[in-house]
Amino acid sequence: MTAGAGAAPAEQTWLIAANVVRWRRYGEGGQELRPGTKSCRGGSKVYVIGTYPGVAHEQLTTIGRGRHTGTYITIDMSLRNLHTFRAVPVHSPAVLRLYEEAGLGGCRTNRQDTEEFAAFLGRLSVEYRTTWWAAPHPVPCRCHECLTLSSV
Prior knowledge:
The protein is α+β, with helices and mostly antiparallel strands. It has helices at 93-102, 111-132, 144-150; strands at residues 14-20, 23-26, 32-35, 45-51, 59-65, 72-78, 82-89. The protein has three helices and seven strands; from the N terminus they run βββββββααα.
């Protein structure tokens, strides 16, 4: 008999996964472009483990691989720097351990609720990216919004 053979199966852990924008506007008037964020490479996958509802979900607590170390880190990120929100079942022991250590709650065992919240964050992130900078985009622009429009 193996260890845990009589134990009840744990409920499925669903988290929201997102990707860091490849390029983000930066500097005075958003006229500079920077790849990814200071802590994560552009395009890297992060898991959303918490939100700050008092700030209209503008800041999210995430788990992802650090830009310099490659190990999983827990960090607060701006919603406008993330895209492609989706619900995913999480099996990674490292992600689950960091999630438990953060103690933020918010874990969803229901796929439908997680998908609905992911769709909400996706709509909100587009709104934040388009309204954050009052100045026009630099020319040429490689920010997330311009890159997605040029591929259509």
